[in-house]
Design a protein that fits this description.
disordered N terminus, 4-stranded antiparallel beta sheet, mainly beta, Periplasmic protein, Immunoglobulin-like
């Protein structure tokens, strides 16, 4: 059985997902890679496991390959409406990072999308993550 979540947003911007659709990588367990325009980025969240309402460090490796001048982070729920949260990214050597807090709601598995922005505009680089309550 599949469940779909609808919103008034552009369907190309926020995909409809099934609660059972597996992710290719679990940030709760390990560093996850995303390939974009022939380059590999690595995403990590610490500490593990990740809990709602607890500060976590979101880290990105390989973002420096894209020559962004003002990268930032935006994250939001794909299967719930928790609003959009924007966060600044700080550069430290090869790593970009941000300290974030993920909100909780009444569903057992919340799927978040983390998108990289450049000057407030979407770059097309993103990773999805499941937070289990």
């Amino acid at each position: 059985m599949a469940f779909y979540f609808f919103s008034d947003k552009d369907p190309l911007e926020t995909p409809q997902i099934s609660q059972n659709s597996p992710l290719s990588c679990d940030l709760n367990v390990k560093i996850c890679e995303v390939n974009f325009k022939g380059k590999t980025l690595k995403f990590q969240m610490q500490p593990k496991p990740i809990f709602a309402m607890t500060p976590v460090n979101f880290e990105i490796f390989g973002l420096g390959e894209f020559d962004f001048k003002n990268p930032s982070l935006e994250f939001y729920g794909l299967n719930m409406d928790m609003g959009k949260i924007k966060a600044k990214l700080s550069k430290n050597g090869e790593k970009y990072s941000s300290k974030i807090v993920l909100s909780a709601c009444v569903i057992d598995v919340m799927r978040y999308r983390f998108e990289i922005l450049e000057n407030g505009e979407k770059t097309g680089i993103f990773i999805d993550f499941d937070l289990k309550i």
